[in-house]
UniProtKB/TrEMBL annotation:
Gene source species: Cryobacterium mannosilyticum
InterPro entries (alphabetical): Cu-oxidase-like_N (IPR011707), Cu-oxidase_2nd (IPR001117), Cu-oxidase_C (IPR011706), Cu-oxidase_fam (IPR045087), Cu_oxidase_Cu_BS (IPR002355), Cupredoxin (IPR008972)
Keyword Cell membrane in record: no
Entries under CDD domains matching the protein: CuRO_1_Tth-MCO_like, CuRO_2_McoC_like, CuRO_3_Tth-MCO_like
Protein name stated in the entry: Multicopper oxidase family protein
Keywords, in A-Z order: Metal-binding, Oxidoreductase
Residue ranges of every copy of the Plastocyanin-like domain listed in the record: 21-130, 138-245, 336-441
Length: 441
């Protein structure tokens, strides 16, 4: 946690040996394990991170979702830290930074999927000014990986690199099917991050009362009662769990995020998680012994009203088309993962935005697979989905664009200027080129 407005940490990115489900495994990790340490800061704080690269490949660090400068030693996705080198990051959170769960992970183009899949990720919490009244708070970092017979990280096949690699083992805070004990009648706050490279998590916790406080950096006006929560890679959920007696499991149930059509067929398929259900944790609810049962939700501390861009003056309208096609492959380029027909080129600016304006982006997905769009630094408000206006205000930094669909988001480009990126958060797609450069001036 931060002291006197400063948090200084060192993150050592390196391979290491850990135990997963009773097996010896060699994975990557920050500071000797996975997930990396949870960093807790407050709005207005300065976060200083020394990243040391003990990997065999270049890496860097991205603070996913934080509203901080995209340039210099801050959240700069163009920084390259070579093996054996270190880099001093400095992130200055504005005084009005929204509280919430964020996360950090490497962002070196072409290696992001492999490094995240290998174990490089951790949570960042921007603390609430006033705590939410619960008996316990848990941070659940959900990730996946595949180990080979020797316990080393399995390499992704070509088909997996196209569909987006999904691990055979799905971990909660680095553990396989951990036991979670709750007492009946108690209310807990579960803060969940989908740190999987490509796997969607459609989460259920049957038999328990679930109320969603928000997603990503956004909060609903009132908690929403839900049966399940869908998290695309990179998304976070802020969930209240009110326990009632019995044993249950936290599960990821099938979600069909589509396939890569012809391309997948050619390469041997790979449908990912569409057909499989995964047990993530075993939850045992013990009787509290006559304690108060499932009382009404106490008043939540007041929060800053999120800015609603539905009535804002829109300065520019743009269209982004997400496409997967043979063209790129046949042209000898990458695998044909494009935004507006182009693959990522770090030396090119794709989108130039005038600072302090509001823009409306139409996101069109022409492919047979979902693509979760992520924009750095500036959160998005979904205003239209599937042709229908959205009547709530929720700030998200990853919005899923389902296969063969379109949606509209609005973005307020305030606070910072500079160059950064937007991309598909199926990290294999990002590595394959589904990323663009934005320059806000
Ligand atoms: Cu979580 Cu650009 O990434
Ligand atoms: Cu990000
Ligand atoms: Cu994608």
């Amino acid at each position: 946690s931060s002291r006197d407005g400063v948090l200084e940490v060192t993150l050592d990115a390196a391979p290491g040996r850990i135990r997963i489900g009773g097996r010896n495994a060699t994975t990557l990790g920050y500071n000797g394990g996975l997930p990396g340490p949870t960093l807790r800061v407050l709005a207005g704080d300065r976060l200083a991170v020394t990243l040391r690269n003990g990997l065999d490949d270049p890496t860097n660090l991205h603070t996913h979702g934080l509203h901080v400068s995209p340039e210099g030693n801050s959240d700069n996705p163009f920084v390259v830290v070579e093996p054996g080198d270190s880099f001093d990051y400095e992130y200055r959170l504005p005084a009005d930074h929204p509280p919430g769960l964020y996360w950090y992970h490497p962002h070196h183009h072409t290696l992001a999927a492999a490094q995240v899949f290998g174990g490089l990720y951790g949570a960042i919490i921007v603390e609430d000014p006033q705590p939410i009244p619960v008996s316990r708070e848990r941070v659940l970092v959900i990730s996946d990986l595949t180990l080979d017979a020797a316990g080393s990280l399995a390499r992704a096949t070509v088909a997996e690199r196209m569909h987006g690699r999904e691990g055979e083992l799905v971990l909660v805070n680095g553990q396989l099917n951990p036991a979670v004990d709750i007492r009946s009648g108690e209310r807990e706050r579960w803060r969940i991050v989908n740190a999987c490279a490509s796997r969607y998590l459609r989460l259920r916790l049957d038999g328990q009362k679930l109320q969603l406080l928000g997603l990503d950096s956004g909060r609903f006006e009132k908690p929403e009662k839900v049966e399940e929560v869908l998290l695309a890679p990179g998304n976070r959920a802020d969930l209240l769990v009110t326990a009632s007696e019995g044993t249950t499991t936290l599960r990821a149930v099938p979600y069909d995020r589509g396939d890569d059509g012809m391309m997948g067929g050619m390469m041997g398929g790979g449908r990912g998680s569409a057909g499989a259900e995964v047990t993530l944790a075993t939850v045992t609810v013990a009787d509290a012994g006559g304690g108060s049962k499932a009382d009404a939700l106490p008043a939540l501390p007041r929060q800053a009203t999120p800015r609603d861009l539905r009535g804002a003056t829109v300065t520019a309208r743009r269209e982004f088309v997400f496409e997967m096609g043979m063209a790129g492959m046949m042209g000898g380029g990458g695998m044909g993962f494009t935004i507006n027909g182009r693959e990522f080129d770090g030396g090119r600016v794709d989108t130039t935005v005038q600072g302090d304006t509001v823009e409306e982006w139409t996101l069109t997905n022409t492919s047979q697979m979902d693509h979760p769009l992520h924009l750095h630094v500036w959160p998005m408000q979904v205003v239209e989905r599937g042709g229908r206006a959205v009547d709530s205000v929720l700030w998200q930094d990853v919005v899923n664009v389902p296969a063969r669909s379109a949606m509209r988001v609005r973005i307020a480009f305030t606070g910072f200027a500079g160059k950064t990126v937007y991309h598909c958060h199926i990290l294999d797609h990002e590595d394959n080129g589904m990323m663009g450069v934005i320059d806000v001036r």
